[in-house]
Amino acid sequence: MEYPHLKIQDPKLYEIIKAEEARQKEGLELIASENYVSPAVLEAMGSVLTNKYSEGYPGKRYYGGNRVIDEAENLAIERAKELFGAEAVNVQPLSGSPANMAVYMALLNPGDKVLGLSLDQGGHLSHGHPLNFSGKLYQIIPYFLKKENELIDMDEVEAIALREKPKMILAGFSAYSRNMDWKRFKEIADKIGAHTFADIAHIAGLIAGKQLESPVPYFDVVSTTTHKTLRGPRGAIIMSREQFAPAINKAVFPGIQGGPHDHINAAKAVAFGEALRPEFRDYSAQIIKNAQRLAQALANRGFRIISGGTDNHLMLVDVFGSKNITGKEAEHVLEEIGISINKNMIPYDTRKPLDPSGIRLGTAALTTRGMKEAHMDTVAEFIDAALANKDNAAELENLARKVKRFSVDFPVPA
Ligand code: DSN
Predict the structure, then answer these.
(1) Given 199, 311, 318, 349, which residue is catalytic?
(2) What are the backbone dihedrals phi and psi of residue 216, each rounded to the nearest 5 degrees, phi first?
(3) 82 belongs to the catalytic site
(4) What band does 414 get if pLDDT is binned at 50, 70 and 90?
(5) pTM of the predicted structure, to 2 decimals
(6) Which of 32, 38, 93, 400 qualifies as a cystine partner to 337, CB 3.0-4.6 A?
(7) Which domains does the chain have, with CATH numbers?
(8) Residue range 24-36: mean pLDDT, rounded
């Protein structure tokens, strides 16, 4: 991409951006929460809509001059409703954690009990980690995966829910590779009169692309970030039943946020428009096919995949148990050869979060670049070879050259 003004006015930052462009082009992005947006999304993000202040909501703003901004925000809302079949949508959350904070504020009082998947088993900081607002302000009752099969144990969720009677049941994850039983979560919540809140940040694109079941028909509230499999700008939205919309809106503004980022909300509208196109279904189907092939290719090379495989775009790999290399070491070695991944705790990990037993891999970004199943075999080969040669600098250099040659054949949208 060209940045003619930056190049002249701020060459230092221009060089930094160009270096990041090169890194993205010449390497393989396997961080499960990342993706590459389209040039149209980038253009909306770089538009003059960033110049506006528009506290409030369409038709009810605290500043003048918002006629055009209202149109952009309404477009984003209408497209999100159509995409997910939601009754009401708030498109203003700046990111996933503030979106989730707004949901807590709308549905609960401080001190209320919430049932959420434990972070070290695939949950998220905002689902109740002790250092996060969620764990500090609310009483979090964690549920865990079944040790034998590393799956959410819905009977255990039900037993805990009946015993603890939480005010809200939270279903969602940042590192779980299997389908969610949304309907069963709702049935459990109904037995105790609890609210249902789904965080679909990781799989929103796969739901929008009609590849995975949606919680929207069952749940009270559903949040998602917009930049992962959904392939939009960094940000989030909150979908809800109409009855919860006033409380959600109040919690987002003035509860947590001030002026919305109108350029980002416009870019969300662009991304939702893209996801409404039929080809987005093919894209999301390909993400899953690629993830399943990558998991299989790694398993064939002796890596243990948590729960034995994946139903979505991501997988957790027990590199310590499989190859005696820690997640931290694996992240470092793979970065040396141009592959970005993140270290990750595996269920019932005996190691620590900053040097855990696992790594997390996702295929949304590589699929955006046009990769198919056969390419996943090559990616698995690179990963395996790098970890096997972690102390062999010459071989790592050789692999880095191969990764670069392979990567540049798959253009990054820009
Ligand atoms: N940081 C995101 C992820 O990697 O899953 C979640 O917030």
Answers:
(1) 199
(2) -55, -40
(3) no
(4) confident
(5) 0.97
(6) 400
(7) 42-275 (3.40.640.10), 280-407 (3.90.1150.10)
(8) 98
